[in-house]
Design brief:
By secondary structure, this protein is an alpha/beta fold. It has a single domain (2-367), classed as NAD(P)-binding Rossmann-like Domain (Rossmann fold, 3-Layer(aba) Sandwich), CATH 3.40.50.720. It is built from eleven helices and 15 strands. The chain has helices at residues 11-22, 60-67, 86-107, 143-147, 177-196, 222-232, 251-263, 282-293, 318-321, 331-342, 351-361, and strands at 2-6, 26-31, 51-54, 72-75, 113-119, 128-130, 134-136, 163-164, 200-205, 207-209, 245-250, 270-274, 279-281, 304-306, 365-367. The strands form four sheets. The chain has a seven-stranded parallel sheet with strand order 3-2-1-4-5-9-12, with helices on both faces. α6 links the parallel β10 and β11 (245-250).
């Protein structure tokens, strides 16, 4: 099969392209190679055997030329990092997705599958249960509560405590610009796919971890942040009280999911969570990274928080498991592989300071008074 991989020089895209080539597919990569991810141009891990085109996925002529020679598309090209340049998220993530379908419809292209990369952030705070009022999908936590160090999400009906639940795909409640753009991307892809008979699937990735994850993003990547701290002998900050909950999924498990939905007809027209299956607090995950580096440093709770962040989110992966997929690698394996990839990388000592300064200057990281 001839497969176009947008964002194919990035983290998830390059690993997926590797597997596609190994399985005998003809792979074309389209990537803009923009900073901060690609500070040095073409990465040395770019998939051997794949044809690389450098350009913007919103370039209609370029994208149309590549779509004409493709049987299937993985759309990974995206703008991320949760910073407050709101319009860019929609411009890159939603517009590029719409353009794929616009070109396919205009030219009558026979695409056998389009797989779009979405995110757990499309679910926002996710699903909770109130003992009195039942299932709830709460909104963003009030800024005044965060400033006071009141971290937990409360029932929007009675104001009482809530129990975190596994969040299935029918919950869509994004609360930051990145999550909103990814939910928009899902809607564009799935609805246009249904309307025009273009077989489409969307994958909501939890926190993906493993080698090739950029060290330069300001916001994203718990594995990156903690690994850099322990590697450099410093203590990482645990935002809020260190008890925020996430689930972490290994990059190779993600690629397994990507290849599954390429050919399984049961995936068409659906969105699937791709998660790790086990919830971890930030403190627990930091301890996993600390153990790998055998560091005597401890994570520090400073009362700082990231404005607009979700408190807890844990993806229900049962729908994808019903297709035969399962997460098979542990966070400890992800950390070990990422740490090995970092060895010998130059300039790491400046990365953390730059990221922290960027987030504070833009008001992403703030301090509580509680």
């Amino acid at each position: 099969m001839r497969v176009l991989v947008t964002g194919g020089a990035g983290f998830i895209g390059s690993h997926t392209a590797d597997r596609l080539v190994r399985e005998g597919h003809q792979v074309t990569v389209l990537d803009a190679l923009t900073p901060p991810v690609h500070r040095d141009g073409v990465p040395n891990y770019l998939t051997p055997g794949a044809d690389l085109f450098v350009g913007d996925v919103r370039n209609r002529d370029l994208l149309a030329n590549l779509l004409r020679r493709a049987d299937a598309v993985y759309h990974f090209a995206a703008y991320q990092d949760y910073l407050p340049d709101f319009s860019r998220f929609t411009d890159v993530n939603v517009v590029s997705t719409a353009l794929i379908y616009e070109i396919a419809v205009a030219e009558g292209l026979d695409l056998q599958r389009v797989v779009v990369a979405s995110s757990q952030s499309a679910m926002g705070e996710g699903l909770y249960r109130c003992p009195r009022d039942g299932a709830q999908t709460p909104g963003m936590r009030p800024e005044q509560a965060l400033r006071a160090g009141e971290w937990e999400v409360l029932c929007p009906v009675c104001g009482g405590g809530l129990e975190m639940m596994r969040t299935p795909e029918h919950v869509s409640n994004p609360q930051n610009a990145y999550g909103m753009s990814k939910y928009g991307e899902e809607m564009v892809a799935l609805n246009l796919g249904r309307r025009y008979g273009i077989p489409t699937a969307a994958l909501r990735y939890s926190i993906v971890q493993g080698p090739r994850q950029s060290v330069y993003n300001a916001y994203s990547g718990a594995c990156r942040i903690f690994s850099l701290h322990f590697l450099l002998g410093t203590s990482p900050t645990l935002y809020e009280d260190g008890e925020m909950v996430r689930d972490y999924v290994n990059i190779h498990d993600v690629v397994d999911a990507n290849l599954l939905v390429l050919e399984d007809p049961r995936a068409v027209g659906r969105v699937f969570n791709v998660g790790g299956g086990t919830p971890y607090t930030t403190r627990q995950f930091a301890a996993i990274v600390q153990a790998h580096y055998r560091s005597d440093q401890q994570g520090r709770v400073t009362g700082e928080y990231r404005f607009g962040d979700t408190r807890h989110i844990f993806s229900d992966i049962s729908a994808l498991e019903d297709l035969g997929w399962a997460p098979r690698r542990t966070p400890a394996e992800s950390v070990a592989e990422y740490a090995d990839w970092l060895k010998g990388m130059p300039g790491l000592d400046a990365v953390l300071a730059d990221a922290e300064a960027t987030m504070k200057s833009l008001g992403v990281v703030r301090e509580s008074t509680g």
